[in-house]
From TrEMBL:
Keywords: Membrane, Transmembrane, Transmembrane helix. The chain crosses the membrane at residues 62-80, 214-237. InterPro entries: FA_desaturase_dom, Fatty_acid_desaturase. The gene is desB. Residues 66-335 form the Fatty acid desaturase domain. It holds the Pfam family FA_desaturase. It comes from Pseudomonas fluvialis. This is Acyl-CoA desaturase.
Length: 362
């Protein structure tokens, strides 16, 4: 069970709480401008520079340290594209710029999952029903039990193994989530409904595999470079991006003090209740500017859940006000170091693999 100390708010307090957060949102919206546009364009340029310099270094083969540096630069470019560029752009954070390359409705990111899948499962479902058991599929992603409120199933005994596989293959886990294969096998989704989703998934999968594991290795062959070095470098870059993304997302949602909610608790939910749920169901990571950039500012997961369509680079300054508002209303502001928050996630994974009575034992 989550270890939180929150004061319950009455309706008047909830309205005031929502009004303060709405006012913060409006102040930030009114101040968006050239600095925000310049920032995201610099991020886009950094992604391109990292990816292309990494790929060029990989063309030099296994010669140290160029192969390792090339792999790390390519991984850095993929992490930046995934976290600070793609994720935030697809939330519509920069739609006000009217830049076709930064359109939230049209952006296609560099992972095997189609962006349309993510815009539905993440932007719509997850952000609407954050941490509501039975409505938010991100609670355990269907294979992990992280809260006692989740019904235990025998295969959870092996969830440390499932989580390890999920972390290594995280981009595939994110993509497959939208296919709702569990609903198909239960007979709630027909083959006719699943087929177009599979076609879309397969097309994006082949595109990504073709780029990373065919195009650039073949190009290396044509240039007389080591194709195997390029292939393995791409594999390593994707692996590092998967592990990093997994760790950031799990630390933002499933720490010791993150709360989950029942379906009944969100019936007739007011804006104040919705804000309160975002605050209680989220976890922040403390660190320097580099950490915030590499996490796509999801190190400020509380602020992201409260204001998903505001540019993420603003979350650090907004966090000062959000923390103060939370304290005024007697709410825990869940924030800690990356290592500390990750440790509590790993403890949850280990503890809740067991049946309820066993998991309650110290």
């Amino acid at each position: 069970m989550s270890n939180r100390e929150d004061r319950e708010l009455n309706e008047v307090e909830l309205q005031a709480f929502a009004a303060e957060l709405d006012a913060l949102r409006q102040r930030t919206l009114a101040s968006l401008g050239s600095e925000d546009a310049r920032y995201i364009r610099r991020v886009r340029a950094a992604v391109r520079a990292c990816c292309w310099s990494g790929r060029l270094l990989l063309m030099l083969g296994w010669f140290p340290p160029t192969w390792l540096l090339g792999s790390l630069l390519l991984a850095l470019g993929k992490i930046l594209e995934n976290m600070e560029l793609g994720h935030n752009v697809m939330h519509g954070q920069y739609d006000w710029m009217n830049d076709p390359e930064l359109s939230g409705r049209d952006y296609e990111w560099d992972i095997v999952g189609p962006s349309d899948f993510w815009r539905h499962t993440h932007n719509h479902v997850h952000h609407t029903w954050t941490n509501v058991v039975g409505m938010d599929d991100d609670v355990g992603y269907g294979v992990v039990r992280l809260f006692p409120e989740q019904r235990w199933k025998p295969f959870y005994r092996w969830q440390p193994l499932w989580v390890t596989l999920q972390a290594l293959l995280f981009q595939y886990a994110v993509a497959i989530q939208h296919l709702r294969l569990d609903q198909y096998f239960k007979g709630r989704l027909s083959a006719a409904e699943l087929r177009p989703l599979l076609r879309q998934f397969n097309a994006k999968l082949l595109r990504q595999w073709g780029k990373d594991y065919l195009l650039f290795p073949v190009l290396a062959l044509l240039l007389g470079a080591n194709a195997l070095a390029v292939l393995v470098g791409n594999l390593l870059a994707n692996l590092l991006r998967n592990l990093w993304t997994f760790a950031v997302i799990f630390c933002g949602h499933f720490t010791e003090k993150a709360a989950v909610f029942s379906k009944e608790s969100v019936l007739g939910e007011s804006r104040g209740h919705w804000y309160l749920r975002q605050l209680r169901g989220s976890s922040n990571l403390e660190g320097g500017r580099l950490l915030h950039i590499l996490t796509g500012n999801l190190s400020h997961q509380i602020e992201h859940h409260l204001f998903p369509d505001l540019p993420a680079r603003r979350y650090a300054e907004m966090a000062v006000d959000v923390r103060a508002i939370a304290q005024r209303y007697g709410q825990l502001y869940n924030s800690g170091s990356f290592a500390g928050q990750l440790a509590t996630v790993l403890r949850r994974i280990w503890r809740y693999r067991l049946p309820p009575q066993a998991a309650l034992q110290p």
